[in-house]
Amino acid sequence: MPLLHQLPDGAPAVVLGVAECSDELDPALLRRLGELGFLPGEPVRVLRRGPGGREPLAVRIGDSRFALRLAEARCIEVRAEPT
């Protein structure tokens, strides 16, 4: 299953869910991603990446834009949509 950080810039996708993927992120932070709108069925797109293609990732979820660290983006499961 693809993860948000694996999407190429500009590729449309849909959130499938947020999963625990790292010891460095606690359950409260994962819950917070859901509160921000990273919920199943929501359209998502990586807009651009930080210097050198790293972090932060500028992401659009629904009508909102966020900057995510790679550790956070690795916990968001997505389904790529056809362009």
Name the features.
alpha+beta, SH3 type barrels, 83 residues, 5-stranded antiparallel sheet
Measure the end-to-end span. 18 Å
Percentage of residues assigned to helices: 10-25%
Structural class: alpha+beta
Q: Mean pLDDT, as a whole number?
A: 92
CATH homologous superfamily caption: Ferrous iron transport protein A (FeoA)
Biggest sheet record: 5 strands, antiparallel
Task: Specify the CATH class.
Answer: Mainly Beta
Instruction: Please report the total strand number as a whole number.
Output: 5
The CATH architecture name reads: Roll
Low-confidence segments: none
Give the strand content: 25-35%
List the helices and strands and how they pair.
Layout: E1 12-18, H1 27-35, E2 43-49, E3 57-61, E4 64-68, H2 70-73, E5 76-80
Antiparallel strand pairs: 1-2, 1-5, 2-3, 3-4
Description of the molecule:
By secondary structure, the protein is an alpha+beta fold. The protein has one domain: Roll (SH3 type barrels). The chain has two helices and five strands; from the N terminus they run βαβββαβ. A five-stranded antiparallel β-sheet has the order 4-3-2-1-5. A hairpin with a 2-residue loop joins strand 3 (57-61) and strand 4 (64-68). The longest helix has 9 residues, at 27-35. The two termini are 18 Å apart. The mean pLDDT is 92.
